[in-house]
Amino acid sequence: MRQTASAAEIIVVDDVSADEGPQIAGRYPGVQVLNRSKPGPGGYAARNLGIRSARSDHIAFLDADDEWAENHLETMGAMIRAAPRDTVLFGTGYDEVHPGGHRIVDVYRRSGGAQRSLAFPDFVRAWLDCGECPVWTSAIVARRSALLEAGLFPEERCRRGGDKDLWLRMAGQGKVQLNPVQTAVYFKDSQNMVTALAHDNVCHCMVETILAMQEQAPRSTRKLLVRLANRETFQYALRTAKSQRVRHASWKHFKPWHNPLQFAVLLGLSSPLCRPLARIGMSLKKLSARG
């Protein structure tokens, strides 16, 4: 409601919440509240309901525990007007607030400090270079037609990582516009975060998407996708190993010749020594980030 550029429509989706949030949101003029009778994993079904109900050409997402700067929509609107016509996804920078009030400023340093437009191979390369997805859900705007064409959030086949899976599919449709200006805050100290839940001990849903993309991609892009699949598989296994032994089936598509050391760690994570090796894996992650 405080945005310097007004939203064309505001849709709030109540995914069977246990507080008075829907009633409070409904008191604001012009706010449409949609209610679901059964909660969906990861909030994916709730977002899909909002997308299908929307009438605007572009959609911005804001999870209940995140925050926009007052110029967020204004910044996004300027990006949309200036971007090439085949741009399907727009992302700005954001800060992270961690438990204890620790704040990481300018998380979007991965954009190289300048606004730029990325074709699909460059988007994957940026993902690999920075060690994480170049866009984040509460700091993006997506073309609604591209969301529908990509198949929306994977509510039926994914409990975790579905956001990244969708952004990857959309990046395969057109360009991604990145702007390093910080317009959002990611609160990682919330008590009810989806990302705080235990990881499923299964193959990351995004790996299925990558395998399908490899069949149609040029050879140079296929190599990038293999590296991305390995990276996401390894990181997902490390997080799973914090609470349980990792199943072999969860990393069955890992290509060992690309990352032999990580492959050795994965073998260990599937053994009774998984906890110590998980700590080794986290150390390798830190060393990789520094390198």
Automatic annotation (TrEMBL):
MF terms in GO: glycosyltransferase activity
Keyword Isomerase appears in the UniProt entry: no
Domain Glycosyltransferase 2-like stretches: 2-98
InterPro entries in the record: Glyco_trans_2-like (IPR001173), Glycosyltransf_2 (IPR050834), Nucleotide-diphossugar_trans (IPR029044)
Sorted UniProt keywords: Glycosyltransferase, Transferase
Family designation: Belongs to the glycosyltransferase 2 family.
Name of the protein this chain belongs to: Glycosyltransferase 2-like domain-containing protein
Organism in which the protein naturally occurs: Novosphingobium lindaniclasticum LE124
UniProt lineage: Bacteria, Pseudomonadati, Pseudomonadota, Alphaproteobacteria, Sphingomonadales
